[in-house]
Amino acid sequence: MIKVGDQLPDVTLMEYSEVEGNGCSIGPNPVKVRDAAKGKTIALFALPGAFTPTCSAKHVPGYVEKFNDLKAAGVDEIWCVSVNDAFVMGAWARDQKTNGKVRMLADGSGDFAKATGLTLDLTARGMGLRSNRYSMLVKDGKVVSLNVEAPGKFEVSDAQTLLAQAKG
């Protein structure tokens, strides 16, 4: 499992863009994790799935709400990573009104989840291999704090916890 002091995995996530700009075309665009994290402080949180109850009601809204506070604490970008395709993450971004605040990054094949060692097997629930629920503060591609939730819990990966760590 990834730990404090480790570099983010060298994988590519996908991000759906509805508008053209900054070298991104409309539609899914690749995001090379290590390149995208270089020289930045990132509040990254991962969750089991788009449109799931806890994720939609609490997890994503908390980061959208704390956007300005996180920026003031030195966070350059907020990333939400989930084992879904880029089109689902794009639709979820619209639903959650994350535009300009939280980058909704698709880990369609679970490569990021597997590389971090933070997978969650939800096969029995018909969801397959997903990401565990967690958050991490990343500086220049290196993990400086990691908050992994116990199964079925939402206690340590919330925006307020990561904000406190960013202010640290």
UniProtKB/TrEMBL annotation:
The top EC class, named as a word, is: oxidoreductase
Q: What is this protein called?
A: Glutathione-dependent peroxiredoxin
The residues responsible for catalysis, as annotated, are C55
Q: Which parts of the sequence belong to the Thioredoxin domain?
A: 2-168
Q: Which Pfam families match?
A: Redoxin
| One annotated Gene Ontology cellular component of this protein | cytoplasm
Q: Which domain of life is it from?
A: Bacteria
Q: What GO terms describe the biological role, i.e. biological process, of this protein? A: cell redox homeostasis; cellular response to oxidative stress; hydrogen peroxide catabolic process
Q: Name one GO molecular function term.
A: thioredoxin peroxidase activity
Q: Which family does it belong to?
A: Belongs to the peroxiredoxin family. Prx5 subfamily.
Q: Which PROSITE patterns match?
A: THIOREDOXIN_2 (PS51352)
Which keywords annotate this record?
Antioxidant, Oxidoreductase, Peroxidase, Redox-active center
Q: Where are the transmembrane segments?
A: none
| Enzyme Commission code | 1.11.1.27
Q: Does the keyword Oxidoreductase apply?
A: yes
UniProt catalytic activity: a hydroperoxide + 2 glutathione = an alcohol + glutathione disulfide + H2O
What InterPro entries would the database entry show?
PRX5-like, Redoxin, Thioredoxin-like_sf, Thioredoxin_domain
- What role does it play? Thiol-specific peroxidase that catalyzes the reduction of hydrogen peroxide and organic hydroperoxides to water and alcohols, respectively. Plays a role in cell protection against oxidative stress by detoxifying peroxides.
